[in-house]
Amino acid sequence: MAPLNRIGLNAKKAKSLARKLNELLANYQVFYLNTRGFHWNIKGKEFFELHVKFEELYNDSVLKIDEIAERVLTLGYTPLHTYTDYLKLSKIKEAKNVSNGVEAVQEILNAYAVLLPLERELLDLSGDSNDEGTNSLMSDYIREQEKLIWMYSAYLEQ
């Protein structure tokens, strides 16, 4: 029988989960900074609508970042916590000086194209590891983001 970690999960599988969660954490940190920048810098006739939407996104990201980091700790590992590590690991790239609403929304959709596959991979890994905690988080994130993709895509169809 494989050794178990302190919460009763296979230690080797928990290590793989923590590694993948840190990858998700890195991507969320860059996503957070991007959406914060969109919120600050947005201009144009949709300013009021998008300013609020981007604030919702970065506030939600802060919560998810904390949940992901705490899940890594729960699994018995250390969450990444430097921008050097985040930028090295993140597939989401920094979006600098974006003030156009269409461009910002497209950047958000591009980010979800990175986040969703990572979350689905974690959903599979956590299911295989009998890790209901991670599984539940990923299931919730996926459901929320699929709806947001629909909504932000509808915005671009103007």
From TrEMBL:
Signal peptide: none annotated. It comes from the Bacteria. Coiled coil: none annotated. Residues 20-158 form the Ferritin/DPS domain. GO terms for molecular function: ferric iron binding; oxidoreductase activity, acting on metal ions. Belongs to the Dps family. This is DNA starvation/stationary phase protection protein. It comes from Aureispira anguillae. The lineage of its organism: Bacteria, Pseudomonadati, Bacteroidota, Saprospiria, Saprospirales.
